[in-house]
């Protein structure tokens, strides 16, 4: 039976000998392979650090399943590489590509955001706003962030506002202005008035 990514990374092998302890579980990775993509792991592998000697590292503030989103994007699982960005993994890919210094994933995210796949996709306000916060704080440009604001501008403003209320007020103000620019203007239907109604002085001028 083919193991899931969760089962794959939670099981050590002759290649996956480096242990990463998270808040929820231990994961096992090929540190040499990861070091080719991640500057964080490259420094750990080539420097004089305790983690290198003990072949284990602790990242106590993350959960195993979140880190697996990052690992399974870089590392082949069951001899297959699955580099697909979705609503369910975009936040974790953004977070870990920055924290673990992985420009390879950042480039994939940039191309995805400006491409047709993101444009055609459906996303919740929570995912879009939280991802936009990471894009903003990590210094992504307008080309990558504008598609996100366009998505938010086309959504239910009440739901978007609830999500914006929980982020930093300074960032919230910036986002609200960007979203407003991309919110379609809705014209209210006006009923035709009575040409000779009592409110029209022209109807009474000669009476």
TrEMBL record:
Gene3D superfamilies: Potassium Channel Kv1.1, Chain A
CDD domains on file: BTB_POZ_ZBTB_KLHL-like (cd18186)
Top-level taxonomic group: Eukaryota
Domain BTB, residue spans: 16-83
Annotated protein name in UniProt: BTB domain-containing protein
């Amino acid at each position: 039976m083919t193991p899931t990514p969760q089962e794959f990374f939670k099981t050590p092998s002759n290649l996956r000998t480096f242990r990463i302890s998270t808040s929820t579980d231990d994961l096992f990775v090929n540190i040499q392979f990861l070091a080719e993509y991640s500057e964080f792991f490259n420094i750990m592998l080539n420097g004089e650090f305790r983690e290198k000697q003990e072949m284990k590292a602790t990242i106590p503030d993350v959960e195993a399943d979140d880190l697996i989103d990052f690992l399974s994007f870089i590392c082949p699982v069951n001899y297959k590489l699955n580099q697909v960005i979705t609503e369910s993994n975009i936040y974790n890919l953004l977070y870990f590509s920055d924290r673990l210094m992985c420009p390879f994933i950042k480039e994939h995210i940039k191309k995805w955001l400006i491409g047709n796949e993101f444009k055609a996709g459906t996303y919740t306000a929570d995912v879009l706003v939280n991802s936009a916060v990471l894009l903003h704080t990590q210094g992504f440009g307008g080309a990558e962030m504008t598609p996100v604001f366009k998505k938010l501008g086309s959504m239910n403003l009440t739901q978007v506002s609830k999500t914006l209320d929980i982020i930093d007020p300074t960032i919230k103000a910036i986002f609200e202005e960007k979203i407003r620019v991309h919110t379609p203007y809705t014209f209210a239907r006006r009923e035709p008035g009575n040409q000779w109604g009592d409110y029209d002085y022209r109807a009474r001028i000669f009476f």
